[in-house]
Amino acid sequence: MAIHAFIDFDGTVSQQDVGDELIRTFGAFEPLHSELLAGRMNVAEYYQRAVSTFTDQATPESVEAFARLQQLDAGAKALIAWFASVDIPCAIVSDGFDTYITPLMSQLGNGCNVPVFCNKLVWNGSAFTPLFPGATESCSCFCASCKRNAILTNIAVDDIVIYIGDGRSDACAVQHADVVFAKGTLAAYCTAQGIPYHHYRTLSDVLIILQTTYKHLDFRPRRQAFLARKHAFEVE
Ligand SMILES: [Mg+2]
Ligand SMILES: [Zn+2]
């Protein structure tokens, strides 16, 4: 039995939602975002429309410069390095975009060079277009990049899944995770769904809990998560 860790990016590795900030900085966040929350479009449609509002200030260089100004959770580097030190494979699963995640992850250093599953912003020389390589119709999740599928394609059904997140796009992932760390709307979602979770404020809190759990070899499978994974493997 192997243990795998998956970490959300926006609001989890980064302090703010960098994706929201990106759209505010280079385009028009509202009224599109309120329309998204009201269910008038899905996330992929929202991103397509939001990116089409970008001004000509948005270039690969200006987006990268914007990204480098964003603050990361001070515990991110130590947590990801710890996963590597105990041979727990770790990946970033995000419904945001590679254009800001890649420079911010590289800012954490070589030890944090982990796989990233996310949407892409493609530059054609004059404008950005969003691409959704992780989109799926088989999951009912509120994301353009399905985190459940990113998890399932990287694990065996009886492996242990650690998941760390904070928001709406993490909902399908936590249903399939054994050890959940949640804050923000994800914590409220877990409470409402009866999914047990550790509440955390920063990734340093997460590391302390994981180190203790690891020392006592106390990573336990969660039956509902195992059944959900088994069901998803059978249906896919
Ligand atoms: Mg998030
Ligand atoms: Zn999903």
Describe this structure in words.
The two termini are about 20 Å apart. This protein has one domain (about 5-15, about 70-120, about 130-235): 3-Layer(aba) Sandwich (Rossmann fold). It has helices at about 20-25, 30-35, 45-50, 60-70, 75-85, 100-105, 145-150, 170-175, 185-195, 205-215, 225-235, and strands at about 5, 90-95, 115-125, 130, 160-165, 180, 200. The chain has eleven helices and seven strands. A seven-stranded mixed beta sheet has the order 4-3-2-1-5-6-7, sandwiched between helices. The model has no long low-confidence stretch (mean pLDDT about 95). By secondary structure, it is α/β, with parallel strands linked by helices. Magnesium ion binds next to loops. Magnesium ion binds near residues 11, 12, 165 and 167.
Which range best describes the helical content: under 10%, 10-25%, 25-40%, 40-55%, 55-70% or over 70%? 40-55%
Rg measurement, Å: 17 Å
Percent of residues in beta strands: 15-25%
Residue-averaged pLDDT, rounded? 95
- Largest sheet at a glance? 7 strands, mixed
Q: Which kinds of small molecule does this entry bind, naming each only once?
A: magnesium ion, zinc ion
Q: Which stretches of 5+ consecutive residues score pLDDT under 50?
A: none
Helices, by number, come to: 11
Principal-axes shape call: globular
Q: How many beta-strand elements?
A: 7
Q: How many domains would you count in the coordinates?
A: 1
CATH class: Alpha Beta
